[in-house]
Amino acid sequence: MAGSFLGMRNPPLAFRNVVHGGRRSLAAISGAAFSLVMVLLQLGFLQAVRITATNNFDVLDFDVLLTSARFEQFYAPGFLPLERLRQARNVPTVESATPLYATFALWRCPPFPLDAPPEDSAPRPGALARWLGGAQTPRPLQRRQLYAMGVDLDQIPFRSPIRESIEANRSRLRMPNRVLLNARSHPDFGWELRDFNHDWELEGTAVSIVGGFDMLRGFAADSTVLLKADDFVRICGYESRETMNYGLLKVKPGTVAQAVADLRKTLPNDVLVNSRDEVLEREVDHWVNQTSTGKLFAVGVLVAMVVAAVVVYQVLSNDVREHMPEYATLRAMGYSTLRLAGILVFQAVLYMLISFVVAVLISLMVYAATEALAGIPMVLTPQNLTLTFGLAMAVGVISGALTVNRLRSADPAELF
User: Fold this and answer.
1) Is the pLDDT score of 409 beyond 70?
2) Which residues of 136-172 are buried (b: 16+ CB within 10 A; e: fewer)?
């Protein structure tokens, strides 16, 4: 019986039901494929949250991080005195200690076109129009927040390739009010207009763009600028360089754990000391588990799979109802309920298998469009593909099993 259930006599009939199902099969595959696309999108967004949660720390060069005791996440670091870096340098395992200043600031976004911008009262283009138009989308003059970071040009705290971008423009950045703008900024911030516009402002202070750097955008900031620490302090309203946001420490190879322990003993309680791994783990936990973002996408996956199950179940139920005489004939020929159940389950699995292939192809296109439109990294990982495939197969088996009850009403006696 198990061989009949999983063997080769059931698949041909189930396959023929799918192939010759016409609109019924098309409805099942379309509905299930749509649901799986939604699942892959939700998982893609969740993966983007994980990537962007750490992308800011990924570009920074440190082994141990000092932050305020009030630190929440990268965009809300709190403040700590520069004196803590001086104290950290006295720990034997610490090789270097570099400050980093960071906060949100208002940026004067140039209009487009520069010579004839639209009026402020003009209707704003929709998301699709902005995506299709890109940097050429007409837009009025506006001010938007971006993330500003101030660095010591003699102790660059970034990894490659941002380090090379700063080094290449170091002499120009030493001049007052010079900045580097993220080349991946949202089009509103004017990276594409850098050679034509000359009216840049950061927090109401006129600045000049002397170059760019390559850095992923995050969910919390659509653009980033880098400038020297002295300009940052003056423009962003800090009292002096004695108040910083991050302390980036490099330690001797193989001494990270020892350095963290020594620093926690040495420094006052107003400082958090964490290794690089601890910082990245904490940041992912904040964005994925402690904010509504991760929970929202997880619920989206659940809802999409329920929709897929309902669609396939309805199609199979209608199929059984409309072909009740045929199923009754099969029972009269000696087919058991379990054997007929195998046909239905296999048919449901076939629906989901075809739907999965269609959903993956559609998702690849949607991922590319979403990344271009929103500027966030959309990656179709093997893990997400495997998870979606497993969910699809589970939905197929469950939907087919739920439909078996209808077979019990297929009475051979009704044929005579």
Assistant:
1) no
2) ebebeeeeeebbbbbbbbeebbbeeebeebbeebeee
CB 358 within 8 A of CB 33: yes
Q: Could you tell me where the DSSP H helices lie in 7-133?
A: 11-19, 23-58, 83-89, 127-133
- Angle, nearest 10°, between helix axes 324-332 and 292-322? 70
Average pLDDT over residues 211-231: 91
Please state, as a whole number, how many other Cβ atoms lie within 10 Å of the Cβ of residue 7: 11
Range in 8-12, 256-260, 380-384, 395-399 with the lowest mean pLDDT = 8-12
Whole-angstrom Cα distance, residue 98 to residue 96?
7
Residues 342/396, Cβ–Cβ less than 8 Å = no
Q: Which long-range contacts (CB under 8 A, 24 or more apart) does 299-303 make?
A: 300/38, 300/39, 300/41, 300/42, 301/39, 301/42, 301/43, 301/391, 303/38
Contacts of 365 (CB under 8 A, 6+ apart): none
Q: Distance between CA 49 and CA 71 in Å, rounded? A: 19
User: Whole-angstrom Cα distance, residue 223 to residue 374?
Assistant: 12
In our burial notation (b when 16+ CB lie closer than 10 A, e otherwise), range 362-378 reads bbeebbeebeeebbbbb
| pLDDT band with cut points at 50, 70 and 90 for residue 337 | low
Q: 260: which 2 tokens? A: 């963290």
Site of tokens 């809802």: 303
Cα 209 from chain centre: 29
Q: Is 379 or 302 the better-scoring residue by pLDDT? A: 379
Residues 6+ apart with CB under 8 A from 287: 49, 50, 52, 53, 73, 219, 293, 294
Q: What residue type is 255 in one-letter code?
A: T
What is the rounded average pLDDT for all residues in the chain? 85
Written as one string, the DSSP assignment of 352-402 is HHHHHHHHHHHHHHHHHHHHHHH-------HHHHHHHHHHHHHHHHHHHHH
Which string of DSSP letters, residue by residue, matches 51-65? HHHHHHHHTB--SEE
363, 35 Cβ separation under 8 angstroms: no
User: What is the value of pTM for the model shown?
Assistant: 0.78
- Rounded (10°) angle between helices 337-374 and 382-407: 150
Residue 8 is predicted with a pLDDT of: 43
